[in-house]
Structure formats: C-alpha cells, structure tokens
C-alpha cells in the first residue's frame, strides 16, 4: 500500500478519499486553488498545496502544477477523483513520466474510452449493442446536419469528450440543428477543451442504467451490479438508486456481461462505469464508459457493503480484486439525492454565496452524507455547486424512499438557494414512487414538481411572530446578564402593563405580500391575530440535534445562528427550525422552508427589484454571445445574450416586446450577480 497519495480534486470526493486513506493508514496531500483556501478538503488532509488562482484551467486542470504539488508533498500516487483531470489521458501519461502512480485505468483504456466516438467504434467490434448514430471524424456542420436528417429526429448532439450533461442538446427539428450544434461546441470547448461532437438517435422514453465494473492488474474483471440514473434534468443526474427497479435477474446478468465485455475489450483496470440507455421493451444500448469513479458510487457501496475507494487504492497498489463475481451480493435498496445550491424555480440556475446555516441529517446505518462543505463555507461561481449527497439504505425501495424523505426534511440551507424542497417533491412524486422511470420524468411531471406558489400558510406567519417575541425575550436576558442588577423586573419583555394589556404589531413580508400579526400578552401565552384568525401561542427553545437554543448575536443583530422552536398553537404542538439572517427569518416546517422578511414599519419598504425594463444577471458569469444588435426591436421571449456560468450556458430572453437600447457588457466580460446587462425599452400596450 502507498505511504502517501495526493488528491488532485476538491469537494466531497476529495473528502471521501481522505477519509478512506486515513482508515487504511495512508497519508494524504490535497491541492487547492485560491478560491478553496478554506475548503473542507484542505482542512481534512494531512497537508495541502496551493496550485493557482480560482479558474480551473489555472489550477485543478493545470497538469504541471499538480505534478509539482505531488513532488513537493512526497506523494507516491495521485487520485484524480471525478471531473477535472480524472479521464484525461495526457494527465495519466504525465503521471507515469513523473514516476507517479495514477489511481485509475491504464493509459490505453483512457485513450480508447476518452472519446465517445472511438469508444462506440470499439464497442461495435466487441459486439456490445449500440444506438444508431454518427461517431466519426467529419465535423462539418452541414455533414452532421445531414447525418441527423438520416437518423431521424429527435437526435442528441453530444460532446465527443463530454460528461455530466455538458455539451449535450436534444434536437427535435432540422431547423434547430445548427443553433444547437453551435451551443454544444462552445460548451464542449469550455468544459473539455475539445469541440468535437457526435450525433445519435434520441429515444423518447428511455431509462439510463449503468453498470459498475472493476478490474485489477491480474486479469480479473467483475461487475458490481447496476444503478438506475434515469431521473435527470438537463441531462444531469438528480436521483440515483440501486438496484434498478424492475430489473430481472436475466437482464441484470446480460447487462453485467456486456459491461464486463466492454471493460475487457480495453484491458480495463480500476473503477469504471459502463452506461446504457434502455428502451421501453428492455433493449439496452451502450452509451459510453466513464473511466473513473462516479458521483453516484455510494449507492453501489450501500447495497454491496463495499468501499470502492479502498478497492481503487488496493488495485492501484498492485493487489488483486478482494472478491470474485460469485462472492458479490446485492442487499436491500439505496437512493442518492444530490443537494445543490441552485434554484429549481429559475431553471435550476446555480446559486452562489456563503452557507450562513447548513444542517444535514445525522449519519447512521441507514443514512450517509457525503459533503465537501460546512456551515460558513462559500459556494463559489467557479466550480460545481454541490452542497452534499444524501444517501439512504433500507431493506426495500419503499422504505428507502421514506428514509430519503426524512433525510431531505432534515436538510436546511440558508445563504444560497437549494433544491431540497424540489428533491422532496421528486421523491414523493407518484411516478417516482411507482418506479415509472425515464429520463424525461422531471419534464413529464412538471405540474407536480413545480406547483404554483400560493404563499405561506397562516401558521407560518403566526410562528414567525412567536419566534420574534421569544427572540426579543432572550435578547433581554442576555443584556440583563451584564447589568449590575440582572434580576430586575425591568429587564423582562413579558408585556406587563398597569391596568392594561399590552398590544403591538409585528409585520412580515414574503415576496410581494406583506402581513401584520397583532400580538397581545396573556400571562404565559400570547394571543396572536392574523386577518381575523385568532390563536393562542406558546413556545420555548428546544435542544434537539441540529438545533438548540440560540446563544449568540450575529453580525446583523440576529440571535443565532439557528434554533429549534417548540411551538403550541391552539393546543397543536410542533417543532420548528428557525434561522435569522439579517432581516430574513427562515422557517423550516414539515419539510418545507419559507423566507420571511421582518419589516420595520418606521421605514419605507424599498423596491428590491431592478428598474423597469432592465435585465439582470441571474448569477456571476461571463458574456459569451450577444444575439441581437443594439437598437433592434425584438419580440417577447427573443434570446438576447448568452451568459456562461459554471461551464453551462444560460440564455437571457426579452421580458416583453421592445427595443434593445444598449448592452452594458461585451463578449468576454465577467459580470457579477444581479448587475444590469441590457438597457431594454418595453413597448407600451
């Protein structure tokens, strides 16, 4: 076994490798960019080496800098994680030239499978079934459009060296092909440094099922069963599970054998994944082979009881596979949900900022949490916005699904937008519950997954008012402790009045709606009134895991960072998680979250929106295309510009029919979150 390894990656995979290495007695060195100076993987590793500024091309993708860090740290081997250089044949070759062990497949396998086009040609020779498509070298746009016409629409355009849904577009009509091709090429070049694409038939309701394979240097190759990764948005996986629902033993054996044949065709060593697209009748077709560990590998670990990172290290050190195919067994059912800093209501746009509050479920036999961040860390615009992977296990799918709903309800994020509520709806969706799965599930079930927002229920406004009252009382007690007479009744905020009952108003705002809660003190309780509804309320700070009594005042004057409030409203008792961030009051109840603003009635409500007719950047990014001329008239919904952020393209459209007076930025400019990009004059109606 190695004495020391260097992890050439970041985030939760770097943290995971560090934990496994530590258990095996292997020292670790981490690399980090300037943006990751305080990152969790840097804190966990035995040592860490700065490799450059925030842009990945100048740090995590800089082969010479990573090798220099390995030499500086005295590492014998390099674990590439996933993403970045994990499937880069030049990096593997450079590691070998430097005398470092690359913890991954042989260079020949990387080169063979690194190109989707070359891989499909090789699989065709090996007898692995393929989809109809063009995977050749001719990249002339007119030729590719002709190939798509011949295949028949819909088709998929895919980056030849791609992955993670980047550089991929579905095209339903011939007239849309050229624009989709141009967009794919830009994304492919930005993400993988190569704009080549392939074109293949798009199945209408396919499932995405992949097989985990593992090989050693002694000629043994096994498969560790399948994962269903059909639940996707923008071709990126959202939920994964193992085993695949409805998978018969016969089909599992056939797909496993095909995956092993694919791995054997390239002399595969280490962890890999063979991905198949499966038609409605169960027919499966090879899509690609990922020559690395996958983001979703924990579900395989949960149903097999194995540590695949440990297998990687042992195989890379020259050891044989720990188990044979006959010794591998499936046990129970596992689900994985990817908790991202993104806003599903805004097309899943990534969200950046500081994690002011982060609570994740407690780990147990049934629940595992893989995360590369902690409360107080920054979600930057430079890298993938994943917060954590929530992985659950139980004896069957339905019980695992219940575990996941509970884990998501216990996940609370403040400071950035998150997809936690969306994931809860997805797991609760009848189609998912009944395992009616295909890659279009999210679009197909959009009415259930993206319900119209009707505002917060009355109990949320009442709970917010009660929390404010209890918070004020706690602040008073904290102030009293520093007073010469801390027990003076004048410190109390209990609303006592001589010959009268104290009454007051507390005002909150949610989106564009403002509501007032009238408060009257009634002994040990409060009488709350909201738009004619009256409720008697009591509450106290609890001490449950993940919460607790707020104990300090934050920078914005808020007690916090968070608390568990035990509430009683008209005899109904419930536990509520409550977080203050400036004027924001975050209420977490029954697996949902509401963000209310405390309104000071002495101040005029300021407009939070931009000036009428403007277009704002939804997140930090770089302008890569201006699609119309200045002074030109456009219709509502017309694309105006393309913003690249986190290696994905986001098109901003005209909010109404009107005239584009001026672009405030040019192609190549970096822009911040919320800045005005376009001076736009809407037509009068």
- Strand order in the sheet with the most strands: 14-13-10-11-12-15-22-20
What general outline do the C-alpha atoms trace?
globular
Please estimate the helix content: 25-40%
Mean pLDDT: 88
Report low-confidence residues grouped into runs of 5 or more.
544-561, 603-613
CATH superfamily of the largest domain: ATP-grasp fold, B domain
The level 1 CATH classification of the largest domain is Alpha Beta
Largest β sheet strand count, sense and barrel closure: 8 strands, antiparallel
CATH architecture of the largest domain, by name, is 2-Layer Sandwich
Radius of gyration: 28 Å
Number of domains: 5
Q: Could you name the CATH topology of the largest domain? A: D-amino Acid Aminotransferase, Chain A, domain 1
What percent of residues are in strands?
25-35%
- Report how far the terminal alpha carbons are from each other: 73 Å
- Based on secondary structure, the structural category is alpha+beta
Number of strands: 43
Number of helices: 17
């Amino acid at each position: 076994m190695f004495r020391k390894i260097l992890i050439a990656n970041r985030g939760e995979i770097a943290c995971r490798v560090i934990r496994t290495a530590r258990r095996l007695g292997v020292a670790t060195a981490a690399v980090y960019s300037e943006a990751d100076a305080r990152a969790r993987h840097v804190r966990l590793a035995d040592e860490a080496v700065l490799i450059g500024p925030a842009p990945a091309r100048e740090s995590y993708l800089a082969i010479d800098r990573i090798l220099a860090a390995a030499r500086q740290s005295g590492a014998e081997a390099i674990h590439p994680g996933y993403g970045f250089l994990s499937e880069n044949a030049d990096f593997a070759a450079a590691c070998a030239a430097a005398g470092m062990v690359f913890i991954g497949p042989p260079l020949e396998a990387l080169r063979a499978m690194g190109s989707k086009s070359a891989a499909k040609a090789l699989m065709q020779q090996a007898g692995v079934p393929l989809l109809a498509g063009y995977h050749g070298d001719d990249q002339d746009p007119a030729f590719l459009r002709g190939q798509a016409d011949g295949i028949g629409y819909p088709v998929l355009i895919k980056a030849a060296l791609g992955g993670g849904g980047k550089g991929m577009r579905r095209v339903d009509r011939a007239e849309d092909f050229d624009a989709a091709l141009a967009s794919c090429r830009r994304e492919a070049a930005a993400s993988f440094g190569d704009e080549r694409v392939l074109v293949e038939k798009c199945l209408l309701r396919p499932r995405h099922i992949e097989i985990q394979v593992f090989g050693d240097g002694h000629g043994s190759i096994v498969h560790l069963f399948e994962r269903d990764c059909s639940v996707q948005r923008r071709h990126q996986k959202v939920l994964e599970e193992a085993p695949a629902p409805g998978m018969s033993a016969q089909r599992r054996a056939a797909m496993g054998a095909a995956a092993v044949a694919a791995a054997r065709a390239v002399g595969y060593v280490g962890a890999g994944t063979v991905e198949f697209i499966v038609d409605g009748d169960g027919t499966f077709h090879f899509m690609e082979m990922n020559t690395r560990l996958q983001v979703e590998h924990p579900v395989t670990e949960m149903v097999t009881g194995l540590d695949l990172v440990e297998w990687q290290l042992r195989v890379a050190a020259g050891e044989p596979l720990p188990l044979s195919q006959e010794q591998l067994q499936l046990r129970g059912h596992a689900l994985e949900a990817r908790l991202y800093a993104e806003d599903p209501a805004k097309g899943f746009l990534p969200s950046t900022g500081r994690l002011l509050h982060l609570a994740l479920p407690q780990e147990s036999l049934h629940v595992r949490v893989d995360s590369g961040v902690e409360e107080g860390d920054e979600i930057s615009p430079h890298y993938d916005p994943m917060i954590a992977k929530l992985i659950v296990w139980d004896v069957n799918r339905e019980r695992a699904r219940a575990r996941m709903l509970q884990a998501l309800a216990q996940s609370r994020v403040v400071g950035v937008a998150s997809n936690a509520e969306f994931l809860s709806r997805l797991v609760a969706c009848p189609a998912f519950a009944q395992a009616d799965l295909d890659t279009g599930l999210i679009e197909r079930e959009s009415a259930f997954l993206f319900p119209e927002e009707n505002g917060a229920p009355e109990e949320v406004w009442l709970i917010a008012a009660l929390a404010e009252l209890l918070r004020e009382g706690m602040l008073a007690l904290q102030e009293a402790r520093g007073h010469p007479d801390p027990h003076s009744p004048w410190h109390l905020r209990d609303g006592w009045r001589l010959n009268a009952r104290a009454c007051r108003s507390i005002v909150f705002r949610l989106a564009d709606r403002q509501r007032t809660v009238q408060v009257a003190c009634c002994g040990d309780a409060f009488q709350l009134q909201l738009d004619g509804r009256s409720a008697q309320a009591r509450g106290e700070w609890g001490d449950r895991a993940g919460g607790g009594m707020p104990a300090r005042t934050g920078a914005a004057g808020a007690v916090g960072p968070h608390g568990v409030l035990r509430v009683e409203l008209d005899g109904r008792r419930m536990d509520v998680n409550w977080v203050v961030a400036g004027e924001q009051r975050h209420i977490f109840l029954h697996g949902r979250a509401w963000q209310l603003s405390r309104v000071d009635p002495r101040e005029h409500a300021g407009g939070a929106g931009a000036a009428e007719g403007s277009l704002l950047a939804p997140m930090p990014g770089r302008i890569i295309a201006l699609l119309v001329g200045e002074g030109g008239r456009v219709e509502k919904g017309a694309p105006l510009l393309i913003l690249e952020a986190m290696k994905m393209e986001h098109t901003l459209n005209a909010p109404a029919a009107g005239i584009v007076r001026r672009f405030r930025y040019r192609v190549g400019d970096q822009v911040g979150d919320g800045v005005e990009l376009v001076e736009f004059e809407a037509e009068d109606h």
